[in-house]
Amino acid sequence: MPNVHTLKDINGGGHRLGSAYEQELEEKIRSVTAFNSEINDLTEKLVDKYNEREKEFQQTYADVGNKISQSNASSAKVRSQLISERKSHSESQRELEAKYSAEVKSLKSQIKTLKREGTLAQKASFADKIKIISLEVKVRELEDDLYSAQSELREANRSLKDQLALKKEPRGASHNEVDTSLPPMDSSSQLSTLNPSSQIISANTFSAKSSGGLIKIFSASATVYPNNHPI
Fold it and tell me: Where is the composition biased (Basic and acidic residues) (predicted)?
């Protein structure tokens, strides 16, 4: 604790008022007071600056908080949109899968049906080929029969002409004599000896059935009259 000097002490052995010491002390007091005033001013300035900085910080903090809130809201909105889009995408994907699954099943069924029809068509084609070959064989057989019938008909006509020629030749002989001998003939043609006024040679008619209907292969007949004159 500093020493306390009373007026008695000052009067007895201290410094008088208004002395140089007192002036120096006043100068120091004024200096300390000015220093304190400066410190107070600086302190106030620092406090004001601190308050200003604190307000700025609070404003910045509030702005950051608002931005964070906005960001959270945007994130929540985006998250909700993503969830909705994923749900919609999942539903669309399920619908597409169901649709294409049905189409794939239908196509597989059609392919199976076409394969089965192709197999049946191949079998039918093979059967048709066998039938065609069989018909071709029959046609060749009928052609052979036709050729044989035509040959027999030509031979019969030739025999008939020879017989008529023989009937015309015996003019110098007696008219009461008639040559009854006949040349040999095929079984397919017969001469009628009971009716001399009309002699007929006929060839059978050959026919065959094909896919287009009845085909007439051959039909012929010949009628010969005495002296080559019709009645």
Answer: 163-178
Q: Could you read off the pLDDT of 87-116 as tens digits, one per residue?
A: 888 888 888 888 878 888 888 888 888 888
Question: The pTM is what?
Answer: 0.31
Q: Calculate ∠ Cα 156-158-160, nearest 5°.
A: 70
